[in-house]
Amino acid sequence: MSMRLILPVVVVLAACDAAFAQPPPPGPMSPGGALRAEGDIPGAIAAFEKRYREDPGDRKILLELAGALSINRRLDDCFRYLAISVALEPTVAPLIDPDLVTARDDERWAAFEHGLVARINAKPDPPIKDVVFARELWKMAAWDQAFFQEVGIAARKTGMKSSVVEALWRLKFLVQQRNQRELEVLVEQKGWPRAGQVGKEAALGAYLVVMHSEDGAQKKYLPAIKAVCEAGELPWVRYANMYDRSLFNDNLPQRYGTHTRFDEQTKSEELYPLEDASRVDEWRKEVGLPPLQKALAPPAGR
Fold first, then answer.
1. Residue 5's pLDDT is what?
2. Could you tell me if residue 302 is inside a domain?
3. Alpha-carbon span 206 to 197, nearest angstrom
4. 37-94 confidence digits (pLDDT tens)
5. Helices (DSSP H) in 55-147: which residue ranges?
6. What is the mean pLDDT of residues 207-224?
7. Is the pLDDT assigned to residue 284 strictly greater than 50?
8. What range does the domain containing 162 cover?
9. What integer is the mean pLDDT of 170-199?
10. Alpha carbons 235 and 13: distance in angstroms, whole number
């Protein structure tokens, strides 16, 4: 079953959860970001460099510039701007950035990551206690997110069913299979990752890998997801999305109404069938979601 048919768009979660070949999200976007979103990487680099010259302290632009340089394989410049970015603010953002998967293959990545983690952990109570575990999860998170923008670009320019889109989805499927195999081994060894153990970003990476799996992984790990939601480490909406995705993969109606699917005939999204329309709002309320009709309503002004 193709993962491109099911779209969690009812609620906004992470970028990847709503990124399945959709247009760039509404809202303000820098000139470089707009060019990146359309696949013009040289143009994006030029725009990001211009913005950096105007405001050398903008860490977000620095990271976006490094990502575009990674895609363009200008790795010397990529690592130079990465170093400037993390010197301004040491965060794990570069370690989960999908645009940096090319830079990850460079021999300099390990030293960059080691130095960044050391700075993040330079506290009396370091936030990343199991660095080895976290490092693997960061890598999975970055690869999980990789190429979603490219799928969207190709779909908008060549059509959802073009050979280009099909090839990109095949690549995404192979990446997902690799991620899932690696995660299963890690979870068998260490248990489900907790935010207090690996940091919230790495823990979320494990969730996303399972969310994008297609062979029963959601059902297998639902108890673990429920446990972390009960502990307050993930919002309950994450559990609802995972629960509904597991039903979809079994060709069953969803419970919480968190997913739509693309209708090839109407060329539009439609709500995936519900388990019980009379109870959906009751179930949604239990996990902190608004009534379904309110969630489906278009944003004001659109």
1. 46
2. no
3. 13
4. 999 999 999 999 999 999 999 999 999 999 999 999 999 999 999 999 999 999 999 9
5. 59-71, 75-88, 101-104, 109-120, 131-145
6. 92
7. yes
8. 3-296
9. 96
10. 10
Measure the CA–CA gap between 12 and 46, rounded to whole angstroms: 31
Q: Among 77, 128, 83, 132, which residue's Cα sits nearest to residue 102?
A: 77
Taking each helix axis as running N to C, give the angle between helix 217-230 and helix 200-211, from 0 to 180 degrees, rounded to the nearest 10: 150
Q: Which two tokens stand for residue 254?
A: 């969803």
81-85's contacts with Cβ under 8 Å and 24+ in sequence apart are: 81/52, 82/112, 83/112, 84/56, 85/59
Q: How far is CA 299 from CA 23, 166, 199, 280, in A?
A: 16, 31, 33, 21
Neighbours of 190 (CB within 10 A): 15
Who has greater pLDDT, 98 or 215? 98
Q: Specify whether the CB–CB gap between 252 and 4 falls below 8 A.
A: no
Res. 276: pLDDT tops 60 = yes
Cα radius of gyration rounded to whole Å, the chain: 20
Q: Which two tokens stand for residue 257?
A: 């109404």
Q: Where are the alpha helices (DSSP H) in 199-277?
A: 200-211, 217-230, 236-249
> Does the residue 264 lie in any domain?
yes
Compute the residue count for the chain: 302
Burial class (CB in 10 A: 0-12, 13-18, 19+), 185: exposed
Per the domain annotation, does 9 fall within a domain? Answer: yes
Asked if residue 301 is part of any domain, the answer here is no
pLDDT tens string 137-158: 999 999 999 999 999 999 999 9
Amino acid at 154: A
Q: Each residue of 15-47: pLDDT tens digit?
A: 333 333 334 444 578 999 999 999 999 999 999
Domain count for the chain, please give it.
1
Decide: 102 and 55 in contact? Cβ < 8 Å. Answer: no
Range 159-163 contact pairs with CB under 8 angstroms and sequence separation of 24 or more = 160/4, 160/21, 160/262, 160/264, 161/264
| Interatomic CA distance for residues 19 and 138, integer angstroms | 19
